[in-house]
Amino acid sequence: MILGILIGFFTLLFLGIPIAFSMGVVTSGMLALKGISLEMMVQRMFAGVNSFSLLALPLFILAGNIMGEGGLTKRLMNLANALVGKVTGGLAVTSIVTCALFGAVSGSTAATTFAVGSVMVPEMKKQGYSNSFIASIIGPSGVLGLIIPPSITMVILGITANISIGDLFLAGFIPGIALAAMLSIYASYISKKRGFGIINKEKISSKELFEIFKDGFFPLMTPVIILGGIFSGWMTSTEVAVVAVLYGLILSAFYGELTWERLKFVMIDSAITSAIILIVIAICNSFAWLLTIAKIPELITGFFLKYANTQTQFLLIVSGILLVLGCLTEVTSLIILLAPIFMPIAMQYNINPIHFGMVLIMNFALANVTPPVGLSTICGCSITDKNMGIEDTLPYLIHVMLIVAVAVFLIIFIPDLSTFLVNAVK
């Protein structure tokens, strides 16, 4: 049964069948062979999405899309440019900082990449940045939306692995800021070495800086409102997602940049995105149940307990597994499949759940960058040049992958980077 599951799943995957359908076909096929009613698959699919907490998912997606279309990107970009625009490679660094700021509003990797890229890519081309460098910066910088709260990936992980979503949100700040700083230093160094960009020597007066900050102040309050609502105990993560939607609508109405026609498009796009993710979650839940029947989680647990003698060894092996699988499939499926398997094992090693959650999040960020299925890199190529392939981003992409990998190692070996803020608040 185990052999049949693995052969069937990876065969369909390599044939180009979407992962949700690959898992669905394998699950239904194996149940039929075992003489188990397919009603069990339907029941497990329903159970996988029958959760009040999952309401936060479409709501955060909607909130991010509303804020992206409501004029927040431009204001955050102006603020980032005022802060870092004068350094070497200022426009590239501005792009990274803007991704970090927009990630604190959107919560989506792809949304961050497209929202920032649509504004910054044309300007970077004008200043002489190469397409390969632009794609390797704009795309991977989108993973900051995955790490810096609010994060849709953190919502899914929190629900799946039974980790506090609020704690995950708070834990993401330091790793997210650290990765943004590392990418910014790299972008500045390469820009100086390659002669990319124009150094902006115009001075911004204190009055202009104040106006720019004032214009970007309310968008920057989004994570404060979200975390404040959760940690004050006034709202659950689902309820605070509703507040985020309302706050986005109020800001968009105030700025006057979100038309009724665009709002209609945002609602439809958010519904489609949410449906895709929820379908994956539902089918993954039935597939995970099939793996449990085949006792695969027990085999994996036995492997770790046999070969990993310390917490660090366990985390390194998990990271290696996610690195390989991240090259083959997208992040949501990895979370639904592996988080329920790995979390109980992590507890046996007495690993802090928040620390382990952030190790997974950082590995998912690396998976979003790693070809051939790196969503962020694909988005970066698409928005830079529709005819551009991932291979065209080399060697810059390899550099960026190494930087994200270093960030993963830092989180593994320095747990306080993940837990400091959570412990400080509590």
Q: Could you please describe the fold and organization of this structure?
A:
It comes from Peptoniphilus lacrimalis. The protein has 426 residues and is mostly helical. The chain has 23 helices and no strands. It is globular and about 75 Å long.
Q: Uncertain segments of ≥5 residues (pLDDT<50)? A: none
Give the DSSP E fraction (strand runs of 2 or more residues): under 5%
Helix/strand class: mainly alpha
Number of strands: 0
- Rg, Cα atoms, Å: 22 Å
Overall pLDDT confidence: 85
CA-to-CA gap between the ends? 46 Å
Largest sheet: none
The topology string of helices and strands comes to HHHHHHHHHHHHHHHHHHHHHHH
Number of helices: 23
Helicity, in percent? Answer: over 70%
Number of domains: 2
Any idea what the shape is? globular
Provide a quick synopsis of the model.
This protein is an all-alpha fold and 426 residues long. It is built from 23 helices and no strands. It is found in: Cell inner membrane.
Descriptive terms for the model:
about 425 residues; mainly alpha
Provide the fold topology.
Blueprint: H1 2-14, H2 19-33, H3 39-49, H4 56-69, H5 72-84, H6 90-106, H7 109-126, H8 131-141, H9 144-147, H10 152-161, H11 165-171, H12 173-194, H13 206-220, H14 222-231, H15 237-255, H16 260-293, H17 296-307, H18 311-326, H19 331-348, H20 353-369, H21 375-384, H22 396-413, H23 416-425
